[in-house]
Each structure stands twice: as C-alpha cells, then as structure tokens.
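#onboarding

Welcome to the new folks! Below is a worked example of what a typical request in this channel looks like: someone posts a single protein sequence, and someone else replies with the predicted structure as tokens. Don't worry about understanding the tokens yet, we'll cover that in week two.

Example request:
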Amino acid sequence: MKNPKTLLRVGVIGTVLVALCCFTPILVILLGTVGLAALTGYLDYVLFPALAAFIGLTGYALYRKRKLDASSTNESPKE
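Example response:
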C-alpha cells in the first residue's frame, strides 16, 4: 500500500472492529447462535494480537503520513 491514507484507513477500521469484538460480547453471541460457542475460549488468543497489530499499523500509517506531509512542505517551489 503506497498511499498512507489507505493504510491509515485500514488500520483505523481494523482497530475499531477488533476493539468492538474485544470489549463487547458480539462475537460470543454470534458464535453461540452459529453453534461454535466452544471457540469463545480461544478468542483472546486471536483478538488481542490482532488488536495490537492494527494499533501498530495505525501508528505506522500516521508516521508515514506525517513524514510524507513534512517532505512535501519542505520542497521548494519550481520556477
């Protein structure tokens, strides 16, 4: 992904979705209705690393965006 805006968008959406699944019982209810309630014990092994990865991705995207904005403002106008 070359565009920092796209990277930032993916990071923020992923962070929100994983945080929503971590802090609310959405996945527990969903897995219970589908018949996969036995998997709820393993959600922590997947959701917390995914949350950390998406937060890291968001931080990296913000870093790249800031670096790109700084480099574009430091360029001298061409005559």
